[in-house]
Amino acid sequence: MSFFEVVNPHLERHTAGRAGWLRAAVLGANDGLVSTASLMVGIAASGAATGAVLTAGLAGLAAGSMAMAAGEYVSVSSQVDVEKADRAKEQRELSSNPADELKELVGIYQSRGLPTALAQQVAEALHESGPLEAHLRDELGHSEAMAARPLQASAASAVSFLVGGLIPFLGLLGPATTRIWLVVAVTFVGLGCAGVLGAKAAGTTLARPALRVVIGGGLAMAITAAVGQLAGVAGI
C-alpha cells in the first residue's frame, strides 16, 4: 500500500499499472496450457507411445517458455524505443518552439472541455513546472503506470508459460488408456482457472474471459488432435 493510500484510505485503486506484466502473464499461461496440451494431444492421437508424448511435451515446454521470453522482450523493447523517440522529439520541439507547444497544450485542454482562459492558465502552469512531462502525458498518452518494461514482461511471460505448461503433464499420471482424455480434462480445468484469475487481476467480470479462454483452448486441441490422427493414419 502506498503513502497516499495510507493517508486517504478511500483512494481508488486501478489496474492500469499492472497492464504490462498482467498481459504478458495471462498470455504466457494460456499459451503454455494450450500449446503444450495441443502438442501432447496431437502426438498421442498419432498413436505414439507415452514416452514420445512426454518427450514432445517437455521439448515444447522448454522451447515455448524461451520463445515467449524472447518474443516479449523484443516486442516490449520496440515499444520502449518508440517512447524514447517520442520523448526526444517533444524535447526538441519544446526547445525550438516553446510558444507553439504551449498553444498546442492549450488546444488539448480546450478540446477536453476547459474554458479558454482556464486552459491557458493550466497550460502555462504546467509549462513552468514540467512541460515535457505534460506533453508526454496529455498529448501522447504516456504515463509511468503504462510505461513499457521489457524485463518485467519477459520474465512474467516465461514463468507463466512454464507454470501453465506443466498442468497438462498431470494427465499422464493416469491409466494409459485414458491419458489423452486426462490431458484434455486437466487442461480445460487449467484454462478455466487461468481465465478466472486473469479476470480477477484485471478487475473484470469472470464468466466471459474464462469462457473464451476455454473455447479457444478446446479448438486448438481439437484441431491438433485431428492433424495428429491424420498423420498416424497416413503412417507419417
UniProtKB/TrEMBL annotation:
This is VIT family protein. It is found in: Endomembrane system. GO terms for cellular component: endomembrane system. GO terms for biological process: intracellular manganese ion homeostasis. It comes from Mycolicibacter arupensis. The keyword Membrane applies. It is a multi-pass membrane protein. Keywords: Membrane, Transmembrane, Transmembrane helix. The chain crosses the membrane at residues 39-63, 153-174, 180-199, 211-231. The keyword Transmembrane helix applies. Pfam families: VIT1.
